[in-house]
Amino acid sequence: MGCQDDLVTNVCEIYEKLSRLESLKPSKEVNMIFTKLVEMCVPPNPVEVTKLPKQVQEMRAELIKICGEAEGLMESHYSAILGSFESPLDHLDLFPYHTNYIKLGQLEFNILRQYYTRVPNQIAFIGSGPLPLTSVVLATKHLTNTTFHNYDIDESANSLASSLVSANANLSERMVFHTTDIMSVTDALKEYEVVFLAALVGMDKEAKIQVIDHLAKHMAPGAILMLRSAHGARAFLYPVIDPCDLRGFEVLSIYHPTDEVINSVVIARKTTMPIHTHDHGRGGIFLPCKCSKVNQPFNHGNMIEELTVEELL
């Protein structure tokens, strides 16, 4: 327990520092604290955040919100800088985590290709933000004929994002930006063969499940849902998707990176047979969660594989 106790103590100290900051906008102090937090959480650690004391879990929930706010501010900051160039996409390496997004894009493309052999005509990315690097990386390096529909609730985020691709004739035709709450999108969701859900859409468990249930209700049967989760100590930085949160989807695999790519990747397929949910609190008709056969979500030999980035790449 020593290593786990040290980690929790250190994360709590970081949380206290971040809570006292007047602003989470990029600065020398903010960058230094977040760098330390990431370095602390990236190495493999057997910690199970759901089994930690209630006060630590409450701290983690607040820390994830702080990380989400800081990430949004950082992306807006760099998107504005990149947008000042005549050709913004030629300068993406100015963003400190650009390499991570290239690796994550390669990883997600490899996973998608294993379970969806066709080239999708249309992809939706929900929560694309002011710096839609996943869409850009996939559109330029892997899916060069696919149209990407980027959804974000924040008009200023979409304004910054669209200015990044406007100078690129090919990409500006294939990158569409929608300023709307995804919970109000219904029929359009049936048009997408693949839907990506960003890690910070629904920063608490209940909000994320509401979005997933909405997608289960409106996505086309057989369509693919790609989600980002977290594992081990990385769950202090991002929300965790439990396979049985994905009611209405067949969970195909979960991949846990072991390098600087922080997010785990979950891939699921929309099922076709509707059933009544047993969860009367949410009500309605939902599709079956096929992960009910999985006793230990991250074990080998079940429906869900656990592979590292190195094995996939």
UniProtKB/TrEMBL annotation:
One GO term of the biological process aspect: nicotianamine biosynthetic process
Pfam family, one: NAS
Protein name listed in UniProt: Nicotianamine synthase
InterPro entries xref list: Nicotian_synth (IPR004298), SAM-dependent_MTases_sf (IPR029063)
Known function: Synthesizes nicotianamine, a polyamine which serves as a sensor for the physiological iron status within the plant, and/or might be involved in the transport of iron.
Species assigned in the record: Sedum alfredii
Protein keywords: S-adenosyl-L-methionine, Transferase
Molecular-function GO term, any one: nicotianamine synthase activity
